[in-house]
Amino acid sequence: MKNNLQNIKVIFMGTPEFAQIILSSLIENKYNIISVYTQGDKKVGRKQIFQESLVKTLAQTHNIPVFTPEKLRSEIEIIKNQNPDLIIVAAYGKIIPQEILDIPKYKAINVHPSLLPKYRGASPIQNALLNGDRITGTTIILMNNEVDAGDILGQIEIRIDANENLPDLSEKLAKKSADLLIKTLPNWINKQIVPQKQNSHETTFCQILKKEDGKINWTDTAEDIFNRFRAFYPWPGIFTFWNGQRIKLNKITLEKSKSNPQTFGKIFTINESIAVQAKDGIIILEEIQLEGRGFVTAKDFANGHQEFIGSIFE
In CATH, which superfamily holds the domain spanning 2-202? Predict the structure, then answer.
């Protein structure tokens, strides 16, 4: 069976670190990756320097041909000529035409980091954190012409730790997803899996996340604010306004059990820490950034702005 799997010609499609971890596992397990499709180089940072995807870097390290088309429809004949037996997709970020999904003998499968049919869409990890979920998971599905609606080949649950943020949980889910994929592929190739339909009555979709969603509402519970921080770290981050100026909160902690009769959004000191009153708890400020400035500790900021303590975030 091992030799049979090594002969399977696989096209991999993915872009960020989540996909890179899965591709690395496929390479380590000697799968025959004949090509990789990933998104093109992107401008990043203040200097807008072009940066290639982690998947592209890994593929080139292993001398795997890399394709970065703007539109996959232009690649249909190229992919047909590659004659893949299987397409594996993980966080690719582009719509794949049905004509491509129909090419491989063993179909096209997708690795989706949620317990489908929950959180169909592009940001399931962020949504799980944003909603304060304690359990999430990963699902291997057959792909069809609907978003994340294909039949299930494998699924596992994963616990979310209370302080995990987006990078932490993404890495954990990627590793668990890679393990599940490696266990699932031999059974699928050898026809030992009966695909299971998703329960359409339990379907939920990801909230589409926008940069402005990082704005804090201090009438929310402290736990909701902290969950927003976890989901939006490091990008786009959460922010508030002070004296008409935007302040990004780069590092905070939650004190859910502590609440004082303060105005929501009021900044005060408690146990030598700087805190902000929210509903049903407080947020401890550790590192903040005034717009146009660098990150500083909240204590250093307060020392340089005497009016900070006692003021109210907008």
Answer: Formyl transferase, N-terminal domain (3.40.50.170)
Alpha carbons 269 and 276: distance in angstroms, whole number: 9
- Residue 297 in tokens: 């500790």
Indicate the CATH number of 211-304 among 1.10.238.10, 1.10.260.40, 3.10.25.10, 3.50.50.60. 3.10.25.10
* Joined tokens for residue 207: 């909230």
Q: Which residues of 246-271 are buried (b: 16+ CB within 10 A; e: fewer)?
A: ebbbbebebbeeeeeeeeebbbbeee
pTM for this model (two decimals): 0.93
Model confidence over 181-199: pLDDT tens digits? Answer: 999 999 999 999 999 999 9
Query: Using one digit for the tens of pLDDT, what is the confidence trace for 58-115?
Result: 999 999 999 999 999 999 999 999 999 999 999 998 999 999 999 999 999 999 999 9
DSSP designation for 84: -
* pLDDT band, residue 271 (cuts 50/70/90): confident
CA distance 36 to 23: 9
Q: Where are the domains of the chain?
A: 2-202, 211-304
The count of residues in the chain is: 314
Helix extents (H) in the chain:
2-6, 17-28, 54-61, 76-82, 98-101, 124-130, 166-189, 222-232, 298-304
Q: How far apart are CA 164 and CA 172, in angstroms?
A: 10
